[in-house]
Write a structure and sequence with these properties.
Elements: H1 5-8, H2 10-19, E1 60-66, E2 69-75, H3 81-92, E3 103-104, E4 115-118, E5 146-149, E6 163-166, E7 181-187, H4 189-193, E8 213-220
Antiparallel strand pairs: 1-2, 1-8, 2-7, 3-4, 4-6, 5-6, 5-7
Amino acid sequence: MMRFWSLLGVAALVAVLAFACKGDGGGGKSETPASSPALAPTPKTYSERPKVTISADKKYSAVVETTQGTFKIELRPDLAIETVNSFIFLAREGYYDGVIFHRVLRGAADKPDFVAQTGDPTGTGSGGPGYTLPPEFSDEPYVRGTVGMARVGTDVNSAGSQWFITYNDQFQSGLNGQYTVFGKVVEGMEVVDTLTPRDPQNVATPQPEGDRIISIEIVEG
């Protein structure tokens, strides 16, 4: 699939991103230099999405420590309060600790820099928290460092725990208004640039071990 981006264009990129989140919301459906060691993730599931306990008027950020270094995400509850609330809940639960960046699409001759995707404790692209989130589309465009929610195919109600960071604004027009934007990397984008490229759908080629999230600290104010 990935080898034909130059022929299929933006539509193919978006299809890849959607397909990359197999069963994200439901958890089990079919369908990327560290100061601390990364532990293996412990998959958890929840019977329903968390009650909203944050405010759209407050500022929240996430400090993401990875095996390649640390970056900071400015979260946008004003754009996507359900999504940000869920992200904060899962981060505080330790849900993302040890989770791999399972899909990092960039750098290869036939693949433009696209996204780094994570958030699945199974590392397969098919895991999720056991609940789904509603779409919270906005006019906020996808540019370098934008953080958005992955989903299953064309089902806009299927986002769960998997999220991605876009590497540039050249191939993202198909994402705008179609995938929930809930933040932006404001510090440490150079760390995101160093994440190990890997494409788990390229079954013909052994893939390298992906980089992992060590921890996510939520900062208020």
